[in-house]
Amino acid sequence: MQRYAILAIATLFTAACSGGGTERGPTSSASAAGTANTSSSAQLTGAGATFPYPIYSKWFNEYASQTGVKINYQSIGSGGGIRQLSEQTVDFGASDAPMTDAELAKAKGGPILQFPTVLGAVVITYNVPQLTHPLRLTGPLIADIFAGKVTKWNAPAIVAANPGVALPSTDILVAHRSDGSGTTYIFSSYLSAVSPSWKSSPGTGKELAWPVGLGGKGNEGVAGVVKQTPGAIGYVELAYAKENKLPYASVQNASGAFVEPTIESVTADARGVADTLSASSDYRLSIVNAAGKDAYPISSMTWLLVYRHQRDAAKGRALVDFMRWMYESAYKDAASLDYAPLPQKMRDALIQRLTQIDVGGA
Amino acid sequence: MAPPTPRRAAALLSAHGFGDQAYGVATTVAALAIPALLVAIAYEVASAAWLVLDTFGWSFITSSEWDPVHGRFGAAPAIYGTLVSSLIALLLATPLALGVAIFLSELAPSWLRAPVAFLVDLLAAIPSVVYGLWGIFVLIPLMRTHAMPFLRDTLHLGATPFFAGPAYGPSMLAAGVILAIMALPYISAVAREVLRAVPRSQREAALALGATRWETIRDAVIPNARSGIIGGVILGLGRALGETMAVTMVIGNRAEISASLLAPGYTMASLIANEFSEATSDLHLSALMAVGAVLFAITIIVNAIARWLVWRVARVGAA
User: Fold this and answer.
1) How large is the ipTM?
2) Is the full-model pTM beyond 0.90?
3) What is the torsional sign of CA B44, B49, B53, B54?
């Protein structure tokens, strides 16, 4: 009996601790930084989005081996990253959706600057065994399919977008993400941009009230449903679709061309926005459905979030140094991990913008 | 020079007294820590949930609309899903687990007993994410291509609302089956031990009266073990109510109440697991906490009913 009681206590405490851990995450390594005189021995802690985690961890590793600056990154999700940054338990946050005004207002450390880092894309994957050509879809059509208004594969709207292609008369099964995710945010912000009725409901968000379909947990959950169910359609990250060799649709962009998602077509999408960017932009940009005939429209940026006024001078300098390194020389790795680099013009502007970070200390 | 004997005895005594006291305090603290922790958790969850309960009132429990984008929250589908998937799990697991337990305690040859018991217990050691992956890649394809068409078309159960509609795979039924497999080892392990604890004399008496083996088990062994078996079922139910990962992976995560078991559903634990990490608005976080509070309350109510049931059965048995 006693043994069980001890076990129970241990379990409860572990549960309590791990629960607290995911909520509050790492305590900032204030003592380590307090004794640091130069940025080379500084240690930074960040938390947030899972989507860019593969490339961030690669960058952090490479930067540590080059400069000795260790950056710990916890990929706990954008929401968690924003919460932790607001509570000042981490030195920087990361998010797949820009922080809203309401979220910015709650940050305890003052104004926050948001820096886009890499681009990602969401692709439409499907399971129609009869198809020999990649499927072609228009924005409003995708919105109608995911809203449950187009329910058959041989619906006139799909046939019209795929001339000369024989489509089966089977039902369409919609698969979507059930967990809150940046992928859903990007996808729904695209659908809101191309379909007024989608914009009013379900709208744009990291988790939605889906009108139809099955929810899968993570990219693998959605891909699992799509792979196994003939007639299914879903959306996943470009990188995930490529790694797992899933078929994906070409999507019609704002200029009317059907574009396949590639690293180049995603960067092209951001270029359309970069060219018209004002110098004073806060970079809370949506690049979905941007202009440019090569642009893949369901693309988005992911952001690093940093306080404008850094409390700790050594850490602040280390953070700025890292970000400059990132914009200047880190993008050669991006394509191999299926992330699209920012357009050069935007990178130059962002390096300029780094000077807005005040590293004077508290 | 040795100290006088009485003083040494007194010192020894007082040392013992201190040991006893320390031991008493330590065990009391340990015993009180658990209820204190429970109260602390309940308080934290309830205070975090207050915002949404205050905003929506009872409609939080009765409404089926869960729309984080527009800030409208109703947990009815998740509450329904948790209860129904757990119920399916118990309906499937209890007879199977009882069969396993009776076989192992009464019928199995001794060389078979230990390995089979070990393997059944091992089911409890498999991580739930593994169950979930197995569910996605093995169970769901099987259910979609075989079990569901069989139930719906061959047995004509599709005429009832419970098995109507298209069978995509991820569904309330799939969740119930996964939960049944996960709850089975708990029920069977407890039932097995309880059956074996029934005194040998009971069996011998029944056999001496001319009962067959089956009659002995039915009339002499099981009635004696009844309250313990119910306890095991309750343990399994607790497992089913709280299970998160495996269910999330197979239930289809659709916040909708549907009579058909072939349709996707949602559970409270899945809802929290899916949305907590990306929830940023106060109302959304509060809604998820409120779901946690409801789950907490349901667990307590179910356990209270179970206690009452065990107590009643034990009393009837004694009378």
Assistant:
1) 0.81
2) no
3) positive
